[in-house]
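#struct-pred
JK: can someone run the complex with iron/sulfur cluster? inputs below
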Amino acid sequence: MTTEHGSLLPYGAHHADLDGKVLAALERVAQSFRALQWQEARGHGLTPLQLQVLVHLLASPGGAYGSHLARALGVTRATVGEAVATLMQKGLVRGLRHPRDRRRIALALTPAGEAIAAKVSAWGEAARAALEEMPREERATLLLFLMRFISALQQAGIVTVARMCVTCRFFRPDVAPGTPQPHYCALLEQPLAVESLRVDCPEHQPAVA
Ligand code: SF4
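RT: done, structure tokens with the ligand placed:
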């Protein structure tokens, strides 16, 4: 059942409830992004999941395997397989054979798929421009907060995939406090500024709890 604000969550932004307001604000942002996604998907005769596959493949220039897509999008392999089959029929996605193992087929965009994914991704530019209006320190604090929040949601079983630095066994936080690159990645053997922290790193390995 939804609330009077159309929210599925049992909180009210009008009460003096800090946590409720944080959740309401996060949901408002998520709703806006979902609505834009629906609008774009409908405009191209696609489902939101099919659109997400295209956008994800745009960010994976070397191609991506079905299992990776399913994990990243939080759906089953069967579900992603159906979306990919439709996208292939529409000529938006193609298969790439692995150079050494011809049984493995990665998925990549066709030029038509790339054109749609690039156009759809452009809406993010407006959000990026709005963020750039905010002071850098506030954006850095927001990024760290969101990463910790997602990590907590993952521990609670609410978020299934979060390949972020803060949950990675190679992450060494605050090894050089007060410097521009306070953190360190023990795998890449390089210091990390806050803006270099990754939210979806292919090399991520979960830290042992
Ligand atoms: S491997 Fe990736 S996720 Fe892990 S610390 Fe290094 S950059 Fe971050």
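RT: quick notes.
The longest strand covers residues 93-97.
The pocket of iron/sulfur cluster is lined by residues 165, 168, 170-171, 185, 187-188, 198, 201, 203-204 (CB under 6 Å).
JK: thanks, will look after standup
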